[in-house]
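Homework-ish question, so no full write-ups if that breaks the rules, but can someone show me the predicted structure for this set?
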Amino acid sequence: MSRTQLPTEFQQRVVIENVQPEVDGGRFPIKRCPAEKVLVSATIHCDSSDLLSAVIQYRPAKEKSWKEVPLELSNPGMDLWDGEFIVETLGRYEYTVQSWVDTFGTWRRDLSKKYEAGLDVTNEMLLGGRLIRAAASRAQGADLDSLRRRIDALTNASDKASQVQAALDSDLFSLVTRFPDRTQATTYRTLGITVERERARYGAWYEMFPRSAGSQPDRAATLRLAEQRLMGIAKMGFDVLYLAPIHPIGKSFRKGPNNKPKAGPNDPGSPWAIGSPEGGHKDIEPTLGTLEDFDHFVKEADHLGLEIALDLAFQCSPDHPYVQNHPEWFRHRLDGTIQYAENPPKKYEDIYPLDFQCADWQSLWDELKDVVIFWIKRGVYIFRVDNPHTKPYRFWEWLIREVQEKYPKTLFLAEAFTRPKVMEQLAKCGFSQSYTYFTWRTTKPELTEYLDELTQTEIKECLRPNFFTNTPDILHEFLQKGGRPAFQIRLILAATLGANYGIYGPPFELCENRAVAGTEDYLDSEKYQIRSWDWDRPGHIKDLITKINNIRRENPALHFNDSLRFFTINNENLLCYAKTSADLSNIIVTAVNLDPLHVQAGWVQLPFSEWGLKGDYQVHDLLTDHRFQWNGQSNFVQLDPIDLPAHVLRISSAKP
Amino acid sequence: MSRTQLPTEFQQRVVIENVQPEVDGGRFPIKRCPAEKVLVSATIHCDSSDLLSAVIQYRPAKEKSWKEVPLELSNPGMDLWDGEFIVETLGRYEYTVQSWVDTFGTWRRDLSKKYEAGLDVTNEMLLGGRLIRAAASRAQGADLDSLRRRIDALTNASDKASQVQAALDSDLFSLVTRFPDRTQATTYRTLGITVERERARYGAWYEMFPRSAGSQPDRAATLRLAEQRLMGIAKMGFDVLYLAPIHPIGKSFRKGPNNKPKAGPNDPGSPWAIGSPEGGHKDIEPTLGTLEDFDHFVKEADHLGLEIALDLAFQCSPDHPYVQNHPEWFRHRLDGTIQYAENPPKKYEDIYPLDFQCADWQSLWDELKDVVIFWIKRGVYIFRVDNPHTKPYRFWEWLIREVQEKYPKTLFLAEAFTRPKVMEQLAKCGFSQSYTYFTWRTTKPELTEYLDELTQTEIKECLRPNFFTNTPDILHEFLQKGGRPAFQIRLILAATLGANYGIYGPPFELCENRAVAGTEDYLDSEKYQIRSWDWDRPGHIKDLITKINNIRRENPALHFNDSLRFFTINNENLLCYAKTSADLSNIIVTAVNLDPLHVQAGWVQLPFSEWGLKGDYQVHDLLTDHRFQWNGQSNFVQLDPIDLPAHVLRISSAKP
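A: Not a homework solution, just the prediction itself:
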């Protein structure tokens, strides 16, 4: 019979499977921020009863050598191993799992059993010596010296008992185990991590239209004038100031106030109809000012601790320079005209979509990347991407990776409101954050189910939610009808449920609730007309916003989502949940009355003993600064929306 | 800016994910038998709102061209697509999913909306003509002619209305859709299927020691003599007769009766201590007869409809010819002796394990494959593999694939009783069937949970259970203490829960319940001594076995496991479940009293309306031939173990 030639990996006895976290079999990276842990688990086993060793291997993708941390067998019956490591630097990381038969450990276990049973262990001792010498052949320096001394000691042991004792010594075991024979080790496939800065995970966003920052109705504010608003926004405690598009606005098919099909001569048009003879995606709308004014705006914001986010709306008005200079980047109808946007039978003749599949798609993709880099070079590192789900997934995956490779500080927020699998795919493709369905989740079951899905299932590995209370497109019925308490409720929910949250102001903090009847659109929306606001309009909730943003900054439990946990409370209008820091030094319990119109009360069940608390404990309402005593598991909550519809309670740690 | 060169697959807009069934990301094949369905589901989506087309592609692995069946969008909100195909021939199959943007369907949907809204569709009609001509360029023969006629009809339409109507025609749609442009289609990775004959999925096994087939105590029966038992076994309705090893038995360290450390001069030894000067794994123990006697035995069994299964115990007695001729296939201790089997501190000096990692491992693997092929050439196509979990996974994966490639009829049953992940891995590596924990699952919660896991979770795609009531190693306490009803209970459970089941006889049908005290070992086990049995010993349950095996053959619902469903019954000692054929033409409800000592009664809740039944319906107890009327959902069951501890009921289909 002719000799079979089999691959040497057939000699790998160990199987590694079900490695977690892993997105789509490793097709996409998971996401982390510096100093965050990656908890890794895997099912690892081999034939027979040999012991195994296993490690996590990880490295920044640019480095050649792996760092290693051990995996421990946490559930022997299910062959489940656990371990963790911490990522440190921005950019790509790689990780995998490697495992091999622990020959020395297996030998040691068996020697111990045989010796205890009084069996002859002469052969075992010979084999042990060979295994230690083999380890020594892989060791160097002080370790090699140590191993040599051990071998000598074993050889020269005065009697069998002391020889066996020396062989079973746990220091020897640790030493030998550091130099295993891994020639037949099994290595899992390499998985990826995108490490982004903390702002990807945690931040408070404020969205505004700079042109409406003035105080005179129907008079567009310049960026210079808009700078006067920065102090107020910064004082409220926001981290990111996201500007509606600031580029030249097209005139063709320009929409009038309240989305009227035709604009009047003085109507400014929608900032999302980008491009005019004055320029396109790399230019500033002239009524706002110049690129230098923009630079000044960014710098002033930065002085106040506000980071500017720009809108990436990759679409063009018919007047965009691309239409003249690169007609090949658009789809053409068979009558020779360029195809406008449509959602049949609706037409959007003021918008030309770009054709990401045009014959010259590579030059289009390059140009769009260049747009991003243009603004990065002007100091903008956060981009809110308009309707990413109408552009190919592969485009975003390529763009974000290319940009982050050179500028790893850069963050992208996906504004996709569509089917869940599409939103998840965009997150997988690299978006740092994602808009969510939060705006439409208002009842206790809706909020509980949705938040559990976002924070407790696999999707948390790559989708970071950003909970916006409202947007220029979404003034939810709850806000339209619930009065000032509704705004307070949604603010507190967003800011305590989401490590990332945002408001669109000033309409939000001024409790603006007038909608186009039967829709979620704002009446006299800033999208289509210049508004001017009394930024101190009576009834505003700026004090509450300031308070909640300060609470967020001071309490690390609110900087993460993973620890979110809902509690039983015997009232369907009351929602109660906690976020906790990993070491339980920071415990924030939030109780919210979801009913903006009535007082609601109930008894909440808290896992106080899991938090190390016994009997009485102090709770401190960070919104009112009241302190009171709670006791045990069951405690009474009553919330009057006219007063304040929520408690945000810090619970004193058990440790003094 | 230099032009980026991007891979053309970046132009694939469609994402295909979460394809089911799939084992470990496609690393291992799923399993099927001919005529079985493969239900495929996948999450498929792309950017924007374009419609998609998707197909399953499948083929026998040896063929080049794919067959295709469509996938249908079954859950648009979740982008979930479903489809199915049927495998026909033995051997490997491959399948995958392909999807592309349905340009014509999208165009047609939009045309319809625009036309209904009264918009001008001149451009749309031009585009439609182009799309149809493009389809025609991919069509041939009659289809091409049809498409050309359609183009002419469209061009010559008398007015806009009739032209649009012709463009929206559903026959045209079907025709064009058959010739899509797939140049930018996305194709999922290729997945595998192992198609094995029906006996892999469905069969009744009988295990025996041929040497104990005689009627004289302590006198080994020959194969010729054992042939006399074939008729009785066949009459009971078994499909497979599995023989304990029939090879020459070693003398060194031979064990005596009841596993005594030393055998007496006339003790026959354990058949699993394989190998003596008379030969090894390709030889017959001389006291059983010759290879010709074996051939005769196989042929006689075949005449009676019994298929012979042999034991593959890849280990050697110290007297095995391999020890002399291939000492390099064993592990050597440092004193030069060969390492015997051990489970420290226990020693098994009568057994030398083979070293699957020895330097010359490839020649060892080849030889073991040759052992299998040796018996295949003598007409044996089923192998029960002894302790496969003590040999490397890769060995089995290689061996089974190699053997089945040439002899696709061949089946392998894994006798591994170890941790679940190890047992699952062996199934993934190709074992056609697997022993299970069934023997140790005796209570209602244990049986329900375990059977749900085996039949309703992903593992069903590759692990086919074979429920043995007992084995030479396992006489469970339930059988030891429950008397004859316990044997009846376990028989009926095994035979109706498992499409594959087996008994070890004659001890089982004779209700032999004497164990070595405090163990699951049979007293005076056939493993270590010759037994002779009165095969008609009073109290036997051969009639019940015959009945249940006939019921199994006549009722296709019992040939599968997937449809298994447990019902609520208000008595913890009563277990009630059904198996149904896909078309509901065969519905078998089994109710078992798990308590062998007491009458038990309760009300069972049946999903009668899901079975198309209304009000009264007839149930036919196939064990007693009684027929009675049941009504609606809730029905009374009372079972006296002294009488018969189970009903096996055929429920008349709603259709007359």
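Now go work out the reasoning yourself. Hint: Chain A touches chain B through 66 residues (CB under 8 Å).
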